[in-house]
């Protein structure tokens, strides 16, 4: 089959809160995934640069924002297991503040990374479904497979 476009809704994302290398629990209710790469440059400009600034990348980082809707059973209070795992992670400190995440494309390409999380709970207006958002700050390198 030829290389083609695919829909963002066909991406899947999961969390391995146990840290055992899987399985990854799907995080449901997501309607937007946004990647924000970042880097820190080391200035390598010197007198021989002839007035042009020079640099090399010293660090790279990634942030992923997941946004969507809060999911829970309104009769029992049971939450989506993926959202609940991210919410628990967002309360952790030290080594308990990191978990493994994996994003899988429709073709089976996998991005796997360790990250901490900041979660925004249950927002919205009068006539909209309650929102849910998690910002994942990668710790270390992302692996591509």
Model description:
Strands 1, 2, 3, 4, 5, 6, 7 and 8 form an 8-stranded antiparallel beta sheet that branches. This protein has one domain. It has one helix at residues 81-89, and strands at residues 12-16, 25-26, 30-43, 55-69, 99-104, 110-123, 131-138, 143-144. It is globular and about 70 Å long. With 145 residues, the chain is mainly beta. The mean pLDDT is 95.
The shape, in one word, is globular
**Poorly predicted spans:** none
Helical residues, percent: under 10%
> Order of SSEs, N→C?
EEEEHEEEE
Which structural category do the helix and sheet elements fall into? mainly beta
Round the mean pLDDT to the nearest integer and report it.
95
If helices are DSSP runs of H or I spanning 4 or more residues, what is the number of helices? Answer: 1
Biggest β-sheet description: 8 strands, antiparallel
Q: Give the radius of gyration.
A: 19 Å
Strand content: over 45%
Total number of distinct structural domains: 1
First-to-last CA distance = 19 Å
Number of DSSP E strands: 8
């Amino acid at each position: 089959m030829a290389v083609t476009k695919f829909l963002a809704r066909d991406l899947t994302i999961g969390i391995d809160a146990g840290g055992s290398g899987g399985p990854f629990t799907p995080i449901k209710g997501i309607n937007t995934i946004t990647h924000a790469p970042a880097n820190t440059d080391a200035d390598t400009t010197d007198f021989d640069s002839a007035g042009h600034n020079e640099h090399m990348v010293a660090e790279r980082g990634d942030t992923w924002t997941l946004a969507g809707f809060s999911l829970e059973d309104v009769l029992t209070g049971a939450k989506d297991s993926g959202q609940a795992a991210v919410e628990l992670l967002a309360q952790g400190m030290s080594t308990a503040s990191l978990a493994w995440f994996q994003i899988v494309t429709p073709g089976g390409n996998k991005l796997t990374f360790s990250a901490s999380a900041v979660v925004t709970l249950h927002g919205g207006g009068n006539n909209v479904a309650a929102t849910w958002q998690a910002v994942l700050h990668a710790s270390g390198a992302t692996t591509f497979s």
